[in-house]
Amino acid sequence: MNGDRGLGFVVVVYLGGLLFGVGLALSQMARPEVVLDFLQLEDFGLLFVMGGGSVVTGVAIAIGTRLDATAPLTGAAYRRRLRSMDRDVLTGGVIFGVGWGLSGICPGAAYASVGIGNYPILVAIAAMLVGAYAKTLLR
User: On the CB side of 94, how many CA atoms lie within 13 Å of its CA?
Assistant: First the structure.
């Protein structure tokens, strides 16, 4: 974390992560078999979880940015970060998608999955870390 951000910032970040992890666990998104059922078009429950999260986030951002033009924790101005569709974006998306399909879980949910006792997912987390490190070496 950045040294000029206080303890309150760190506490809020960790509490946000805890809330996110509990939400993933309660929605079953931290269970690879549920995610794989979704990816194989057998269970559409996760579609409602992701859609609900997207709607809540969209409304919060739309209202929050109209009430105040700065982020509450950092004071930084809100601004869009546009990224062009280049080779890195496409390659990253493909790697992410293949990893999600093979492991049955995305990175955020993988950490929450450990929290509910799914320790074999540590292999997938290790593979994510190795992949991220390899990407930095290739860049």
Answer: 7
Domain locations in the chain?
A: 7-138
Collapse the DSSP code of 122 into the 3-class scheme (helix H, G, I; strand E, B; otherwise coil) and give the result: helix
Q: What angle do CA 96, 10, 128 make, to 5 degrees?
A: 20
Distance between CA 29 and CA 107 in Å, rounded?
A: 11
Give, for 26, the enclosing helix (H) or strand (E): helix 7-26
Comparing C-alpha atoms, which of 70, 33, 29 is closest to residue 52?
A: 29
Express each pLDDT in 24-62 by its tens digit: 888 888 888 888 888 888 988 888 888 888 999 899 888
Strand, coil or helix: 44: coil
Residue in this structure with the two tokens 């860049």, named with its chain if needed: 139
Q: Considering the entire predicted model, what is its pTM?
A: 0.60
| Integer CA distances (angstroms), 55 to 30, 48, 97, in order | 20, 10, 23
Predicted local confidence at residue 1, as pLDDT: 44
Q: Which positions ≥6 away from 25 have C-beta within 8 Å?
A: 112, 115, 116
